[in-house]
Design goal:
The complex is a heterodimer of chains A (335) and B (326). Helices cover 44% and strands 11% of the residues of chain A. Chain A has 12 helices and 8 strands. In chain A, β3, α6 and β4 form a beta-alpha-beta unit. In chain A, α1 packs antiparallel against α10 and α2 packs across α8. Classes of the chains: A alpha/beta (335), B alpha/beta (326). At the A-B interface, α5, α6 and α12 of A face α3 and α4 of B.
């Protein structure tokens, strides 16, 4: 779904329902990841974006298929919102041959070149400078596409984040930096990991226009992303968008979350982005039946996806040495 | 015509930028080039300014930008300057670039080239002298190019920039810049992944790469002249891919292998070659010796540095020891 350039006021009911559906798709998709992880069917340690879905949906609504997207270890929502096939993504997360990376990447390394998803890298902040490089490549070639990179507030503690802000400003790169400020760097709250209250403040000395918005309001994200992306396409210069949100899940599936209280979690659930949009749609006259039908339809769709993925073959161990190099060098190294 | 190693580097950059608009330079100061090479490179940096980024000191960011540009379909050269500074960029080199082709199930590859002026240069002390080929050799997915002569300085860099489909670390060497070689324009280039027999011999094989190549050739000359020993010199040219076959064939022919390497002794390139010989060449082997840097940080003061440097004399001593042992 891409609605490039339309302001929030121009969105009709069907478009808003499409947002609602996409929010549910990410929520239920990750619910399935969590369910299977609890049963030991997901290798490794998947990271859920439950509660943060509005950022992915609001930003990606403006992206073209050829725009470059970079994400990190919490990428399920971004990849789905960019247009990747939920089946290929789910099969990847459970390590199947049909996965988007043929079972070599997994939850933390979702790459889908055909949909412009060039890099979900498992290293916090590692993706930020990669996105700058892709933006530069597009700029040198005179293309109108841009690169967008999603990262958490935890990434701002890494030096490469600051190096990249300097490079993006110095080279005037068509780069949208989207911070999902969920108040947590892994298990450490923002107050404990930085004295800088707002991530958007980091953009100021580098002369990058930045804005802090409510990241749990998909329409606010949509509108702010529209302005930022239009500005980038017009000027070729970078922008930073800080989306205040909340990670309703733990850092990874199975995280006991001793670092926060039940009261805090309950309070944040009041700000659930899906409920927010639901209330808005009800005010617009959409019926409960219609809304429930959307969620039910997505649930049916994902049940089928998960069933199919679970039946898909695992990679053949005999192929483990393939694709270390994209040339015959792989053969030479097997000696 | 003869060209120097430094001219080979400059010429490869010049010709690659001219040949393909997707070749980009991030940095590109290419520190330490001699006057002739600078005269070649400087006009190029002006002519192709739109594809060259002048950079701050941000190795991690720059290496990442190179990976990202390669992901987007370009062929960047990232100048990481002094070899020891690759540690500043290491996360992007080893944990991003090297993994991408594999981790994406072969969807994409990143033909980025990291230029690194590695090795002991004299007075660089502990923080400006690293020979990183063995460390890099532990990173599947990288190609590690270690030219030991001017023709390979040119050919390997041009190959990395124009033809390679994988990430490469190109290890230049400050003490090789003035080495010269015969260079014939458009001459077919020995395929990457093949070692070069620089000198044929019967009694002992000297296995070398990078700065060890001219020193092994000097050692071979001394062995012949002063000791009547015929040494074969195998120039590996690349650490990944590694031409194990040529090493095994040469050692099978001479029965003795002396491996000269500027890496530290333990877990080095020489150790890998010795292990290969032990696994696959033992039947025809009489002796194997490693001539390497001891496991110590590189000291500053000249006599201390000289004490640990792998010289032609030390390679001669290693060869004599191997020949006398069996």
């Amino acid at each position: 779904m891409t609605l490039q350039g339309m302001s929030v006021k121009e969105l009709n009911k069907d478009m808003l329902l499409a947002f609602y559906e996409q929010l549910w798709r990410i929520r239920l998709f990750e619910g399935q990841v969590q369910r299977l992880a609890a049963r030991g069917e997901v290798p490794g340690f998947p990271h859920l974006s439950t509660g943060q879905e509005a950022v992915a949906v609001g930003v990606c609504a403006h992206l073209r298929e050829d725009d470059y997207l970079f994400s990190g270890h919490r990428a399920h929502g971004h990849v789905l919102a960019k247009g990747s096939d939920p089946y290929a993504v789910f099969a990847e997360i459970i390590g199947r041959q049909d996965g988007v990376c043929r079972g070599r990447g997994g939850s933390m390394h979702l790459v889908d070149v055909a949909h412009g998803v060039l890099g979900a890298t498992g290293v916090v902040a590692g993706n930020v400078s990669l996105a700058a490089g892709a933006a530069w490549a597009a700029q040198v070639r005179g293309e109108s596409r841009l690169a967008v990179v999603f990262f958490g507030d935890g990434a701002t503690g890494a030096g490469v984040f600051h190096e990249t802000l300097n490079l993006a400003s110095l080279w005037q790169l068509p780069l949208l930096l989207v911070c999902e400020n969920n108040g947590m760097a892994e298990f450490t709250s923002r107050e404990e990991h930085s004295n800088v209250a707002k991530v958007s403040a980091f953009a100021v000395p580098y002369d990058i226009p930045a804005q802090t918005i409510d990241g749990n309001d998909v329409l606010a994200v949509y509108e702010a992303a529209r302005e930022a992306i239009e500005a980038i396409r017009a000027s070729g210069a970078p922008r930073l968008l800080e989306c205040m949100t909340y990670r309703m899940a733990g850092h990874y599936v199975g995280d006991a979350q001793h670092y926060r209280s039940k009261e805090e979690l309950a309070a944040m659930k009041q700000k659930d982005p899906i409920d927010r949009l639901r209330r808005h749609l009800v005010k617009q006259g959409v019926s409960d039946n219609e809304l429930e039908a959307v969620a039910a339809r997505v649930k049916t769709e994902l049940d089928a996806v998960v069933d199919r993925a679970r039946r898909a073959p695992r990679p053949d161990p005999a192929t483990v040495l393939e694709d270390v190099y994209s040339t015959a060098f792989a053969m030479a190294q097997r000696a | 015509m003869k060209i120097s190693f430094a001219e080979g580097v400059a010429k490869a950059i010049q010709e690659s930028l001219a040949a393909n608009p997707r070749v980009l330079l991030i940095g590109g100061g290419i520190m330490g080039l001699n006057t002739a090479a600078r005269a070649l490179l400087d006009p190029v940096l002006r002519d192709f300014a739109s594809r060259i980024m002048v950079t701050p000191i941000s190795e991690l960011g720059l290496a990442g930008a190179g990976v990202g540009a390669a992901l987007a379909g370009d062929r960047p050269l990232v100048d990481l300057s002094t070899g020891s500074f690759i540690f500043q960029a290491f996360a992007q080199v080893a944990n991003e670039a090297a993994n991408i082709h594999y981790m994406t199930g072969g969807q994409t590859s990143v033909p980025v080239t990291f230029y690194s002026l590695a090795g002991r240069r004299g007075g660089g002390a502990a923080q400006h002298s690293h020979a990183t080929q063995a460390l890099l050799g532990q990173v599947p997915g990288l190609q590690v190019l270690t030219p030991g002569g001017a023709e390979d300085a040119y050919g390997l860099l041009k190959w990395a920039l124009l033809e390679s489909r994988n990430p490469s670390v190109y290890l230049s060497h400050p003490l090789l810049f003035d080495e010269t070689a015969e260079w014939i324009p458009h001459d077919p280039f020995l395929p990457v992944g093949k070692a070069r027999i620089r000198r044929e011999g019967r009694d002992v094989s000297l296995i070398a790469s990078s700065i060890m190549v001219p020193r092994a050739l000097a050692a071979a000359e001394t062995l012949q002249r002063q000791h009547g020993i015929s040494a074969e010199v195998v120039d590996l040219r690349t650490i990944i891919p590694l031409d194990r076959d040529t090493v095994l064939q040469s050692a099978a022919k001479t029965g003795r292998a002396v491996i000269a390497d500027e890496c530290h002794h333990s877990y080095g390139v020489a150790a890998e070659i010795a292990a290969t010989l032990a696994e696959k060449g033992l039947a025809s082997l009489k002796a194997v010796r490693r001539v390497t840097m001891p496991d110590v940080p590189i000291p500053f003061s000249a006599p201390l540095e000289a004490e640990i440097t792998v010289t032609a004399e030390k390679i001669v001593a290693g060869a004599l020891d191997a020949v006398r042992a069996a």
